[in-house]
Automatic annotation (TrEMBL):
Region (Disordered): 1-41
Cell cycle among keywords: no
Domain Acyl-CoA dehydrogenase/oxidase N-terminal: 7-118
Keywords from the UniProt entry: FAD, Flavoprotein, Oxidoreductase
Name under which the protein is recorded: Acyl-CoA dehydrogenase
Organism superkingdom: Bacteria
Family: Belongs to the acyl-CoA dehydrogenase family.
Taxonomic classification: Bacteria, Pseudomonadati, Pseudomonadota, Betaproteobacteria, Burkholderiales
Length: 370
């Protein structure tokens, strides 16, 4: 990384941290989580005003043309602030798919609005009961005089509720699949929104002859690559976001053990406690270095290896920080509890360890490594 890039990314990180210090609090996060779709329009507007939604959009489409690493710098700082709004799912995954596939009037109408925050878009990533796996779509698309009509279901995906439009994959015929654009208010479309463990929202999707516009048609093998590459960007950003949350959980614990006393002295004076905290620090720093590497080398194997390590670190951090705090760590009133819930959900939001181990094994067999 050049000195200029490093300085620019530090400026990005500093701007997010200042914004979070001024606008983020437990009360604000609870207000966002309690909103119908977990994303109050005024809060999304604040994020847009900072220019962050324009990062994934090319400059020629009214965006800023930021790199994936730039986006992950943003995500890490937003993870520190425990952002409830679906920045990764909407601004990184869905926006990337639109950039890759939208053409003509749809592109000119939507990319600028996504960059300015006037519109929000989400991608229905998973099939029912297959969250974390990119599987052939069960939903079907029938051609009509006006385009296509889609029927079927999609599994629980982050960021769907409240979006102005949705992207999804449906089978057209045999091995022909399409990536479709569907207005959120389309006839026959029903969302099943849920508030997740850490306050963020995800929704399942049901469609019954819902009108849709075809963005890209391809055999499943090619469609899978297109979709997985977009989701992989989300996984990398999710890992950066998790690294940010883990950093704060660790820092909070370091301060706490300095004040918690047993047998007349702070537990931070115990060498065993010091070693445990040092181990956590090394793991969190390793995760930060890994997401930066993978953001610049986002091969499928690298992404799954990063996801596996992220899950391990998230689990270790929340287990150790909770144990060092005791029961207070899980209380609603104590801020660490929010970070523990975020880290716990991080172990499954974009696929659990088994999903990524299976994917990594399949890639290894395909490459002839096993």
């Amino acid at each position: 990384m050049s000195d200029t890039q490093q300085q620019e990314q530090q400026m990005i990180a500093d701007s997010v941290r200042r914004w979070a210090t001024q606008t983020s609090s437990p009360a604000q996060r609870e207000a966002s989580a309690a909103h119908n779709d977990g994303c109050p329009p005024e809060r999304w507007g604040e994020i847009a005003e900072m220019g962050w939604l324009a990062f994934p959009i090319p400059a020629e489409d009214e965006g800023l043309g930021g790199s994936l690493e730039d986006l992950c710098v943003l995500a890490e700082e937003l993870g520190r602030a425990l952002l409830i709004e679906p920045f990764v799912a909407n601004a990184i995954v869905a926006s990337h798919l639109m950039v890759q596939t939208a053409e003509g009037a749809l592109r000119s109408q939507w990319l600028g609005d996504l960059a300015s925050g006037q519109k929000r878009m989400a991608f229905a990533m998973w099939e029912p009961q297959c969250e974390g796996l990119v599987m052939p779509a069960n939903a079907t698309a029938q051609q009509t005089p006006d385009g296509f009509a889609i029927s079927g279901a999609k599994g629980l995906s982050p960021g769907l509720a409240g979006a102005d439009a949705l992207l999804l994959v449906a089978r057209i015929a045999d091995d022909d699949y399409g990536l479709f654009f569907v207005n959120a208010d389309a006839a026959g479309l029903t969302l099943g929104n849920q508030r997740l463990y850490d306050g963020r929202h995800a929704a399942s999707l049901q469609l019954e002859k819902s009108p849709a516009t075809l963005l890209r048609k391809a055999p499943w093998a090619q469609m899978q690559v297109l979709v997985q590459s977009a989701i992989d960007r989300g996984i990398i950003a999710h890992c950066a976001e998790t690294a940010g949350a883990a950093s704060v959980a660790l820092a909070t614990t370091i301060e706490y053990v300095k004040t918690r006393k047993q047998f007349g002295r702070s537990i931070s004076s115990n060498q065993v406690v010091q070693h445990r905290l040092v181990d956590l620090y090394v793991e969190v720093q390793e995760l930060k270095a890994l997401w930066r590497y993978v953001a610049n080398e986002p091969s499928p194997g690298n992404v799954s290896a990063l996801a596996i390590r992220c899950i391990d670190v998230a689990r270790h951090v929340w287990e150790e920080t909770l144990q060092l705090h005791g029961a207070i760590g899980m209380t609603e009133e104590y801020e660490l509890g929010e970070y523990l819930r975020r880290l716990a959900l991080a172990t499954s939001l974009y696929g659990g360890a088994a999903v990524h181990h299976e994917r990594l094994a399949a890639l290894s067999f395909k490459a002839g490594y096993a």
